[in-house]
Amino acid sequence: MILNLVNKFRCPSYNSVGKMSQKVTQRRGLLYHITFSCTCSFETSFTNSIQLVHSATAPMDELNMMACVAANVAGIKRTSMTTILGMLNILPPVQIENWQKYQKIYSNALDAVKDESLGGAAEEAAEQSSETADREGVTNIKVLIDGT
Ligand SMILES: [Zn+2]
Question: Where does the Mutator-like transposase domain lie (predicted)?
Answer without folding.
Answer: 16-148
